[in-house]
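Name: Competence type IV pilus assembly protein ComGB
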Amino acid sequence: MAIFLKTNLIAGFTKWKKRKPLNEQGNFLTRLGEMLENGFSISEAIDFYSRLDGRSRLVTENIVAELHNGVPIHEILFREHFDQNACIQIFFADKHGYMSEALIGAGDYLRKKARDRKTVVKLLQYPLILIIILFFVMILLKNLLLPQFNNLYQSMGYNSSRNIHFLIDFLKNTPIYVLLFTLFLLVCLLISHLYFRKKSPIEKAEWLSRIPIFQFYYKLYISQFLAREWSFLLRSGFSINEVLRHMKNQSFRPLLRDTAETVMNRLQLGEPFSVILSDVRFIEKEFTMVVKHGEKNGRMDHELLYYSQFSFVRMEEKLQKIFRSLQPAIFIVIGLMIVAVYISILYPMFQMIDAV
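Structure predicted for Competence type IV pilus assembly protein ComGB:
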């Protein structure tokens, strides 16, 4: 077990260390897409960018050399530890031909992802500092202040009420509760990791799509991604079977690969496409309805594109709403803890003063 954890930690740290910042990845892909729109080929754009910004850590001699040897751009970027979701968008673009749009879209996605991470860090930074300070205050309270107040109360013959006694005991043991809770979370994460290693990608996705609150984002993200990529592929003249075959042949997202294989097997048995999608638990029902409607009127590519744009805006609004409510919720918890500290110390003193 120890060897397993050590190996995974070393591998994860090495990968994290090699990974380029998301903002740099996003800017690189966006500029690449813009150069393609202006008539550059992929090879020319990469070569020009390396000359334009020779100090950039993203454009290496290895990338340029592999491009000249005919290695697909999505494979090169994956080896250079670019974001997997960006790589799979570029993989599909290699099939449907809308490479400039895909590169610009992937760049926008990565910059937005970097902004969201920065926003979460900003929101949590100050509250986390307060929580750490409060944690040490609780330790001082337990080891220094509360014992002295207890001696004072005993010398004056004061007996606190049951509620105050419970509150004081809770505050005294808060550091222990926090440590036990942290240990419990770590054990749960370890058990979950070991449990999910044995599950297939589809089983993992079905489990994640049942988690309250999180299921909304998970299902909407997958549906939005599929709608966007399918719309491009269908617009390029690919049939549903060809779209599924491309999904099956990619290696970036095992979930999409296994899902495509399952759907293709059921299509061969003669089941309607929309009916098969309705049985997939980790996509939105609206996505299935759009596909069903698009099958009838022959405009599935356009409708899927509109649905992906609508879903993206919907997901963005929901995330912003959570970001706005996250910090106040943490401050409320901190405020309640501070009030509890004051009550546990001052309330018995006021009661003693009233009794004199």
